[in-house]
């Protein structure tokens, strides 16, 4: 018994020493990198481009550079805060899934308490920055995004219903409202349409990813649609939402009239490719390569669609479009009228 006790104590001491050595050899750069990874930085740029699109559309292409910088930084801080809180809440399933096990919290590089303080600091900085330099509405919307993402999506929906990403998609669409509100101090119909486009785009985007990693979700009991309903049902839902988002993206042209021919051409081309990829996946629901292709394209689709909004709203684009329309009208009026024979 004594020998066994000594052996156990030696193992505990060695474990404590090993942990101490590991922490002593973790340099400042590695600590910063761990906190950076905690914010899931690859997700944030896609949120910011919808913010920028909202700002450019609201300002008719004449955005105040300082306000743009403040809003994007504030949006980055809010999104980072939400992602850190998500990492804290999902630390148990992150440890179980192979692709997420190396994240800072499940790997032990960052303690839960430290991550929580980091999230609070990020959220507070976001609210202060937006409230002081933009307006209170933009700041409150950014905070509502954090609350919705954590309270509604992560806590209530993610682990309990296969429709989690549908309703939870509202959290990812809020940055578009933040951008519009930062410029105008209010929310009008075009802002809500941009919100709706992002909202409808989210299920095809995320379910394509879920098809690729359905086994991971099944392992930890997350009822993502491919796990609960299977690939065929998921691809049908992807097709339906793609059919909804593409026409919705054209409503900026008519009846709202806030975007013009340049955006229209971009939206039509992008939408046609989106529909084609969704249709191909519908014909072959178990093809992970098609799911991967749709997932990657959905990111490109949203980025280029928002870029189209920005480009179309620029004064120089508006001037060129007007000049082109005038010249076309002049050309048509110069064509002699040839009456049909009676």
Automatic annotation (TrEMBL):
Assigned EC number: 2.5.1.141
Function: Converts heme B (protoheme IX) to heme O by substitution of the vinyl group on carbon 2 of heme B porphyrin ring with a hydroxyethyl farnesyl side group.
Family: Belongs to the UbiA prenyltransferase family. Protoheme IX farnesyltransferase subfamily.
GO cellular component term of the entry, any: plasma membrane
Signal sequence segment: none
Source organism, top-level taxon: Bacteria
Transmembrane segment boundaries: 43-59, 65-89, 110-130, 165-183, 189-213, 262-282, 294-311
PROSITE patterns the UniProt entry points to: UBIA
Protein's organism: Coleofasciculus chthonoplastes PCC 7420
Note: Carbon 2 of the heme B porphyrin ring is defined according to the Fischer nomenclature.
Lineage start: Bacteria, Bacillati, Cyanobacteriota, Cyanophyceae, Coleofasciculales
Presence of keyword Membrane: yes
Topology versus the membrane: Multi-pass membrane protein
Catalytic activity annotation: heme b + (2E,6E)-farnesyl diphosphate + H2O = Fe(II)-heme o + diphosphate
Protein's recorded name: Protoheme IX farnesyltransferase
Compartment annotation: Cell membrane
UniProt xrefs under InterPro entries: Protohaem_IX_farnesylTrfase, UbiA_prenyltransferase, UbiA_prenylTrfase_CS, UbiA_sf
Molecular function via GO: protoheme IX farnesyltransferase activity
């Amino acid at each position: 018994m004594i020998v066994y006790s000594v052996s156990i104590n030696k193992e505990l001491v060695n474990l404590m020493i090993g942990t101490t050595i590991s922490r002593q050899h973790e340099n400042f750069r590695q600590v910063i990198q761990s906190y950076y990874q905690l914010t899931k930085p690859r997700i944030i740029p896609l949120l910011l481009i919808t913010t920028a699109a909202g700002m450019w559309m609201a300002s008719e292409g004449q955005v105040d550079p300082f306000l743009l910088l403040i809003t994007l930084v504030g949006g980055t801080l809010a999104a980072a805060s939400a992602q850190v809180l998500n990492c804290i809440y999902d630390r148990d399933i992150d440890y179980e899934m192979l692709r997420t096990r190396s994240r800072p919290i499940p790997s032990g590089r960052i303690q839960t308490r430290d991550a929580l303080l980091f999230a609070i600091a990020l959220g507070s900085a976001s609210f202060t920055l937006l409230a002081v330099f933009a307006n209170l509405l933009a700041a409150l919307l950014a905070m509502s995004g954090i609350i919705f993402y954590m309270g509604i999506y992560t806590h209530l929906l993610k682990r309990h219903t296969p429709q989690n990403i549908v309703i939870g998609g509202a959290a990812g669409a809020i940055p578009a409202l933040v951008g519009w509100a930062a410029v105008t101090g209010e929310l009008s119909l075009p802002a809500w349409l941009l919100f709706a486009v992002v909202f409808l785009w989210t299920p095809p985007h995320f379910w394509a990813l879920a098809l690729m990693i359905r086994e991971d979700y099944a392992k930890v009991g997350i009822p993502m649609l491919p796990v609960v309903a299977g690939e065929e049902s998921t691809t049908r839902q992807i097709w339906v939402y793609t059919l909804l988002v593409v026409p919705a993206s054209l409503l900026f042209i008519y009846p709202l009239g806030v975007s013009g021919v340049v955006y229209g051409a971009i939206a039509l081309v992008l939408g046609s490719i989106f529909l084609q990829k969704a249709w191909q996946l519908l014909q072959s629901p178990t093809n992970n390569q098609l799911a991967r292709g749709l997932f990657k394209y959905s990111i490109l689709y949203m980025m280029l669609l928002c870029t189209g909004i920005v480009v179309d709203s620029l004064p120089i684009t508006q001037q060129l479009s007007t000049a082109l329309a005038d010249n076309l009208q002049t050309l048509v009026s110069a064509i002699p009228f040839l009456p049909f024979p009676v």
